[in-house]
Amino acid sequence: MPTKSFLSRHTVPLALLSALVLAACGKSAAPPPMGPMEVSVATMHQEKVNLTRELPGRVNAFLLAEVRPQVNGIVKQRLFTEGAQVKAGQALYQLDDATYQANAASARATLARAQATLKASELNATRSDELVKIDAISRQDHENAIAAFALAKADVAAAQAAVQNANVTLAYARISSPITGRIGKSSVTPGALVTANQAAALTSVQQLDQMYVDLSQSSSELLQLRKELADGKLTQSGDVPVQIVLEDGSIYQHKGKLAFSDVSVDPSTGSYALRVTVPNPENILMPGMYVRAIIGSGVRDNAILVPQQGIARDPKGNTNAMLVNKEGKVEARPVKVSRTVGDKWLVEDGLADGDRVIVAGLQKIRPGAPVKAVEFEPANKEASNTKPPAAAAKPAAASAPTEKQ
C-alpha cells in the first residue's frame, strides 16, 4: 500500500523535528543565574557638627522716638525734610510762641523787681544792725528788718524759678529731635493746632545704622537643649555669630550677635523672646521686615549624619534604614533621627561608626538578599568608578552642616 509506506517514511523525521523544537524552547525558558544586585552605600563616620536653629523674626529699629508737643500751639513752620537724616537736638517744628515769649518777659520783670526789693531790704537790715547796737531802734524794728531781708531773698528765688519755667515753656515751642536718625513723614502741616501730650505723634525718628531682630523660640526646644547639654550630648558653642536670611532667601552680608534672651515664656504662644543686634550700614534692613535667623545651639562632637534618601518611614511614622552587613546581605534596622543638618539626618540611635547605609537601589532589594555595595558619590563630585551603578540616585550637592527648622 503506497499511502502507508509514505507515512512510515516521514513519521520519524517529523517526530525528531518536534523533539528538537521542544528542546530549544525549554533551553530558552531557563534564565541564566544572576549575580548580586548592585547598590550605592554611604559609610557612616562620626564627626563634629555645629548644630543651629533657624528661627523666624522681625526687624525693629535700634532706637525709636515718637515726637509729640509738650505745649499747646499753632504749628508755624516745619523745619525738616521728610525721610532725611536728622541729628539729636535739631529743630523739627516751630510753634507760634508769642504768648510764651510774653510770659517769659513778665517773669523776668518780676525777677528784676524782686531783686530791687532785695537790695533795699539788705541795706535796711545793715543799718538796723548798727542802730540796734546804740539802742537807736527797738529790738522789734530790728527783727522786722531782718525778716524783711529774708523774705526779699525768698522772693528773688521764686522769681528766678518763674523765669526758668517760662524759658522752658518757651523752648518747648521749638520742637527738636530727641535722637539722631532717619525721620519719617509729618502728620501735621503749618497751621495745625497741636496740644500738649496728645496721643498722635507729629512724626517719628528711628536710628537705623544698627537694628534689632526679635526672634521667638519654643520653650520645649529650650528644655530639650538644656537636657542635651546636661547629658553631655551637646557642648556650648560659645559666642557664635548669628546669620540673617532675608525675605528673598539671600544671606545678609553682616552677621549679628545675640544680645538678649527673655526670662519668661509667653503663655499664649508657649515661646520666649530672643533679641539679636545686627549692623545696618547700607540700610538694607528696614523696621517691620520679616527675616529668619540661623543661631547656634551647640556642638555635637560624635555626630553621625546619614543622607536623607537613606531613611524611610513606615505607615506608623517609624524611621528605618537598609544596611549592608558584614556578610554582604541586606539588613533592615530601626533608626531614630532628630533633625536635619544640611541634606542629611542627624542620627540619635540605631547607627554606629562604620555602618554602610544603602542610599540608592532600594526598590530592587529585600532584607536578607546578597548585594554588591558601591560607595555612594554625591552629585557634586566626579565618580571614581567608570561604571557607576545604574540605579544610583542624584542627590543635591552637600551643603555646610547647618540645621534647618
What topology emerges from the helices and strands here?
Layout: H1 2-29, E1 37-43, E2 46-67, E3 73-78, E4 85-86, E5 91-95, H2 98-133, H3 139-172, E6 174-176, E7 181-183, E8 193-194, E9 203-218, H4 219-231, E10 243-245, E11 257-261, E12 271-279, E13 290-307, E14 312-313, E15 319-324, E16 330-334, E17 336-341, E18 344-349, E19 356-360, E20 371-375, E21 403-404
Parallel strand pairs: 1-20
Antiparallel strand pairs: 1-19, 2-9, 2-13, 3-5, 3-8, 4-7, 5-6, 7-9, 9-12, 10-13, 11-12, 13-18, 14-15, 15-16, 17-18, 17-21
Helix pairs in contact: 2-3
What features would you describe in this structure?
By secondary structure, the chain is of the alpha+beta class. 27% of the residues lie in helices and 34% in strands. The strands form four sheets. Strands 2, 4, 7, 9, 10, 11, 12, 13, 17, 18 and 21 form an eleven-stranded antiparallel sheet that branches. Strand 17 and strand 18 form a beta hairpin. Helix 2 (98-133) packs antiparallel against helix 3 (139-172). The longest helix has 36 residues, at 98-133. The model is unreliable at 1-12, 26-30 and 381-405 (pLDDT under 50).
Q: What does this entry show, briefly?
A:
With 405 residues, this protein is of the alpha+beta class. It has 3 domains: 37-49 and 301-404, conserved putative lor/sdh protein from methanococcus maripaludis s2 fold; 52-62 and 212-300, Elongation Factor Tu (Ef-tu), domain 3, CATH 2.40.30; 97-172, Helix hairpin bin (Helix Hairpins, Orthogonal Bundle), CATH 1.10.287. Helix content is 27%, strand content 34%.
